[in-house]
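pls design
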């Protein structure tokens, strides 16, 4: 009887700890994502309105321990400009959305997770696929544990459209042309 009571007490104390440090799937709670760039007429920014995220992250009482896996999928036609439908159409043509409706990112490796005050500096490697072209990219991301057990990941990544075999959009018979370099901005919140 004494051994049974001891086993129950040990289980009651250890099980919550094991559940706390076990890797788990997180779901998308909220996000802000946009793409910005330049043109011969003005700077521009387009918001991303539809993404999905799959992740497996380990957190324990010491904080963020590991990002075991992460994939992000963006609905390319959900990218909408503040400049109107003409800009959206040009963007979708450049992205070849008819052939490649999704933009994807697949984490391949975490180089480091370094605590920095209340945040984490994360160096990540992954594969980014845009317009059917997959390239390895490295990213520096800021991670933060939020109230309620949620996690925030923020960052910016500069890319060149030409690297993904995309032609920079033009308008008015080529007199207005976007710059080759774009910046992706993201702020993603995940939780259980």
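designed seq:
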């Amino acid at each position: 009887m004494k051994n049974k009571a001891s086993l129950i007490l040990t289980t009651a104390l250890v099980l919550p700890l094991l559940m706390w440090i076990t890797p788990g799937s997180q779901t998308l709670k909220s996000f802000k994502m946009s793409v910005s760039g330049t043109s011969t007429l003005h700077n521009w920014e387009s918001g991303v309105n539809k993404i999905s995220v799959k992740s497996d992250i380990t957190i324990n009482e010491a904080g963020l321990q590991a990002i075991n896996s992460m994939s992000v999928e963006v609905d390319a036609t959900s990218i909408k400009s503040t400049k109107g439908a003409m800009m959206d159409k040009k963007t979708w043509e450049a992205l070849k959305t008819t052939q490649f409706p999704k933009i994807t990112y697949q984490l391949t490796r975490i180089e480091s997770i370094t605590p920095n005050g209340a945040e984490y500096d994360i160096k990540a490697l992954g594969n980014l696929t845009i317009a059917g072209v997959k390239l390895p990219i490295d990213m520096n991301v800021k991670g933060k544990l939020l109230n309620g057990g949620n996690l925030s990941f923020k960052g910016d990544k500069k890319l060149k459209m030409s690297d993904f075999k995309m032609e920079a959009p033009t308008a008015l018979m080529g007199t207005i042309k976007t710059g080759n370099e774009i910046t992706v901005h993201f702020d993603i919140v995940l939780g259980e």
